[in-house]
Fold:
Amino acid sequence: MLMRRIGRSSGASRSCFFISRGGFSTTTATSPDGTTLLPTKTSTPSSSTKSINLFTAINQALHIALESDPRSYVFGEDVGFGGVFRCSTGLADRFGKKRVFNTPLCEQGIVGFGIGLAAMGNRAIAEIQFADYIYPAFDQIVNEAAKFRYRSGNQFNCGGLTIRAPYGAVGHGGHYHSQSPEAFFCHVPGIKVVIPRSPREAKGLLLSCIRDPNPVVFFEPKWLYRLAVEEVPEDDYMLPLSQAEVIREGSDITLVGWGAQLAVMEQACADAEKDGISCELIDLRTLIPWDKETVEASVKKTGRLLISHEAPVTGGFAAEISASLVERCFLRLEAPIARVCGLDTPFPLVFEPFYMPTKNKILDAIKATVNY
Amino acid sequence: MSVHLLKSRNVVSHFRSKLGFLAITNQPTCWNTNLNHHFHTCSRSILQNLESPHEFLCENRNSLCFHRWESTMAEKHLNVTEHAMDYPGGKVKFTSDMSFIPGSPEERIHCYRVLDEDGHIISSSNFIEIGKEVAVKMYMHMVTLQVMDTIFYEAQRQGRISFYLTCIGEEAINIASAAALNFEDLVFPQYREPGVLLWRGFTIQEFANQLLGNKADYGKGKQMPIHYGSNKHNYVTISSTVGTQVPQAVGAAYSLKMDGKDACTITYFGDGGSSTADFHAGLNFAAVMEAPVIFFCRNNGWAISTPVADQFRSDGIVSRGQAYGIRSIRVDGHDAVAIYTAVHEARQMAIKEGAPVLIEALTYRAGHHSTSDDSTRYRSAREIEWWRGSQDPVSRFRKYIERKGWWSSEAESDLRANTRKQIAEAVQFAEKTEKPPVAAIFQDVYDVVPSNLREQEKLLRETISRHSKDYPSDVPV
Structure:
C-alpha cells in the first residue's frame, strides 16, 4: 500500500491521500457486460513506475493514445501550447499541429466537430476547458453523440469521441471554475461518464475511455492536477470501465464516492476507525453505466450506505445510487442511506468551506448512520 | 498611430523597420520635439520625395539620422497617404474617415442562373454542359421525387404513416446537387434532402420501410418517418434537431483531408438552420481548420411559419460567407444546371484547396412544412400556387431536355404511372412487413448491452407477458 499526503498551506480543510493497491481491482463481481474481471496490465509489481502528478499522468495517456493510433486527434481551446492545465504539453510538438490543435472558442463547435471526426472512425479527444463551460455542447452531447449509434440502427457511431473536462472545487474557483456537472450527463443513455480519483487511475481510465467504442465524458478533478502525486506505471495500460473499486475494506458502513471527494472520505474513514467504526470505501469510477453489483455486495455486507459528492445534493448522482440500493437492499439496511453533498446553491467563493462536503460532515454522518 | 509614437521611443524603434518613416508624415505636430521643426517644414517635401526615399534620407541625414531606417526599400510600394499596422491577425490600413459600413449592400448579391423559366440557356452563362445520360437520369429522379412526395404525403393523410414532409419546389436542389457530387462525398442532411439519397440508389422500398419503421428499416424503427440514413450510400442519419449536422460535417471533412481522400462532405440546412449557433460554429471551424466541406443552404423563404424577414436581416446567407473567410455563391434554386455547375465547382475547390465553400440556393418551400402544418394559415394560397406553378424546377428542366430531344410526353406519362404504381406497392409491402423485435429497444444504446439494460429488458418482458393487450401486436416480442 502506498500513501502520500500533501498538505495545503491555505488553511483549507482538504488534504490529499492517495491509496493505491497493487494494481488489481479488488472487487470480485463480474463486470457489467458479463465477462469476468481480468487483472490489469499493471498487475506485475515489477513494471516500472514514476512518481508523477495528475496532469502529467493525463499527459502521458494522451501521448500514448496519439502514438498508438495515428488516426487520433486532440483539440480544444489552448491545447496547442500545452493547455491551461498543462495536460496537452508536448503533444503538438511531437505529433504536429494537424493532430493537436487549437479550436475557436466555441464548445458546441468543439463537440460537433469531434462527433464528425469520430463518425469517420477517428479517436477524437476533445477538451472542454472547464466543465463549467460544457453546457453549450450539451445539445451535441445529448441529442447527437448519445444517440448517434442508436438512431442510425448502428450504421453510424461516434464511439471514438472522448470529451475531457476539468471539474470540481479548486479552493478559489467560485461559480464558474468549480462545478461538478456529472449528474446532468448521468441521465443520458448512450454516453459513459468516468471520473478518476488519482494519477494512476486517471491514466488507465482515460486510455480505456479513448479506446472504448462509445462516446465518453471524462471529468478530471482539477484540484488534484498538481496536488495528487502517485507512482504511475510508465507504460500503456488500461483500467476497466463500469467497474467500481473497493479501495478500503470494512464491515460497519459502505461509503461510495468518486474523484477528489474520495480523499476527503478516506480521511473520514481513518478518523472513524479510531472510534471503532470499520468503513468500506468504494470508488465508483464509472458513473454510467455504473457497477451496481459491487455496491450492492458491499451494502449487503455492512447494512449501511453513505454517498458523498461535491455537486449539489438535490438531483445529484447520490440520489440515483440511493434509490437503486434501497430497491436492492431494503431489508438489509440498518439505517437510512446518507448523502453528504454540496449545498443547493451556486458554488460560492468566500463560502466554499461551508458549501463543501467536508471530512467532519462525513464523519458526523458516519456516526449518525452507525448509531441510528 | 502618432499617439503611440509620442508615448514611447521604444515603441517607435520597434516599429521603425515596419513603418519606415511613413508613420510620421501625417501629423508632424505630434512628433517628437527634436524633429518637430524640421518636419513641419519637411513634411511636404517628404511626400514629394517619397518615390526615392533613400535619396531623400541621404540628403537630410542630419534631421533623420538618429533613426536608422533599415528597410525603407521594402516600404516603397506602400501608399504614402495611408498608415498601416500589423495587428495580431494581419496588416490593417488606417483611415481618417469615420464612416460605418452599411448593414446591407446597395444591391443584393447576384444570383447565378443558367436556365430561364422556360428552360432556355441564358446565352451569356458559363456552365457545365450536362450530357444526355446524366441529364435524363436527373430528370427522372426529379420526377420520382415529386411522385414519391405526393404519394407518401397522401399515405400520411390516410393514416398509413404517422408523419411526412415534402420537398416540393426543391427537387432541383436535391437531385442536381447530388448529381454533381461523387458517391464517396459524405452527406450530412437536415431533413428536406431525400432526393440526394434517392440519387445515390436508395430504393423506394427502402424509403417506405423507414416510413413504416419496420424490421427492414436500417434505423430499426427508432425514429420518426423521413429520418433516413444509410452508411452504404454515404448519407448520415437525419436527426430532427436543426443545424447540429453542420459542425459534424466539418469534423468529417477534416478527417477526409487528413486521410488524403479525394472526397468532401456536404451539409444541407435551411434559412432557419442558418440562424442556429451550430451554423456559426460550423462555418468558423471549417475556415480555421481548412476543411473540405460544402455548406449548402436551401433558402426557401420559410422556417415553418417564420418568414425570412423574421429570421435574419442580412442579405440572405451568402453574404455571411465572407464574414467567416469562406468563398460563397448564390444560385437559382429552381435551376438544375446552375446548381449542378455550382456544386461541381465547389467540390473541386473544396478538395483541391482543402477549404470550405458556401452555396445559397434561393427557392420557395412550395409545400407545407410537414404533414403537421397547414401553411395557408400564414401565407396566401395564391402565393403558394404562383411559386409552385411558375418556378417549378421539374418542368423547367423538362423543357430543357425536351428541347434537346432527350425526353417526350410519352416517356413522361410512362414514368409517372410506373413510379406511382411502384411507390404504392412499396407502401403496401412495407405495411405488411413486421416491426423490429422488442430486443431492438435495448440494442445500440452502447456497442454492447450493459447490465442495467439487460435487467430492464427482463422486467419489460415480464410486464409484456402479464399485460400483452397494452402493447402493439405488430412488434414481435
Observations:
- Chain A touches chain B through 52 residues (CB under 8 Å).
- Chain A has two domains: 3-233, 245-370.
